[in-house]
Amino acid sequence: MTTPLVSVIVPVYNVERYLKRSVLSLIDQVYTNLQILLIDDASTDHSAAVIAEFAAQDPRIQPIYCAQNRGVSAARNAGLAKAKGLYVAFMDGDDWVAPDYISNFVAALEAGPYDLLVSPFYTDSPTPQPVAGSLCRNRELSRGQLLRGMLKPVGKVRGYLWNKFYRRSVITALHLQFDEDVTIMEDELFNTAYIMATSRFYYYGQPGYHHVVRSDSATQSLGVIGAVPQQLWALWRIWQIMLKEKRAVGVAVSESDQTSSSH
What are the extents of the domains in the chain? Predict the structure, then answer.
């Protein structure tokens, strides 16, 4: 198997309690050709010190320290600006990944080749919840299937960044960035633009990403009601992006729902 460089972008804000486990899970990957971008968004705890300590020990870690807190979208944009890998992955600073997570993703991407890879994930609340066997089947996805799975409020595709791998060449060609004025569904906006410009998608059925559920996360702190206005605004923008590609929209809205039950 070839070993292209993979850039892993990790925004960090006040996650000192979780950060050591997160970074160690990347350092201990079976796949070693990594650029680990740790972006501290002006944390008020000791997250920056944790990052500095790891950066001094492992040359693959590239720290970025933001002068002021600007939010997760700005932090991810800072990471994208420094990314050099053939592939780009994202991880949240309080999550962690299994040792073979990246090697499995790279092997699947190279076998395609594919433009985007997505996989199911574990939800740690606080211990990892099992993933149903029906969600662990490898398969290619059409654009419509991927969009539908991304926008569904349940399932293991969803609109998240961290259970997907991307080609940096696509991100660069599209000048893709995260909208820094959006704090809810910024992932879905980015993913929609990426998906509408590409055509080769694969669902890799082996979960390896552990998403840690926290009551003090940005989304949870807004509350269900508080998040609604931004969600509606983001959904409207997603639809506008899709309308720019009428052919792709036709696939997305008219395709049969034969596989939706498996997402």
Answer: 6-256
DSSP 3-state of 143: helix
Q: How far apart are CA 200 and CA 130, in angstroms?
A: 28
pTM comes to 0.86
Across residues 49-75, what is the average pLDDT?
A: 97
**Which one-letter amino acid corresponds to residue 167?**
R
Alpha-carbon Rg for the chain, nearest whole angstrom, is 18
H helices, E strands: number in the chain: 9, 11
Q: What is the mean pLDDT of the chain?
A: 87
Sign of the alpha-carbon dihedral angle for 145, 150, 152, 156: positive
Does the pLDDT at position 255 exceed 60? no
Among candidates 160, 242, 141, 238, which has minimal Cα distance to 199?
141
Q: Enter the tokens of residue 150.
A: 């991304």
Separation of CA 124 from chain center? 17
Domain 6-256 belongs to what topology?
Answer: Spore Coat Polysaccharide Biosynthesis Protein SpsA; Chain A (3.90.550)
The model's pLDDT over 14-36, given as tens digits with 9 standing for 90+, comes to 999 999 999 999 999 999 999 99
Which residues, other chains included, contact 215 with Cβ-Cβ below 8 Å and sequence gap of 6+?
none
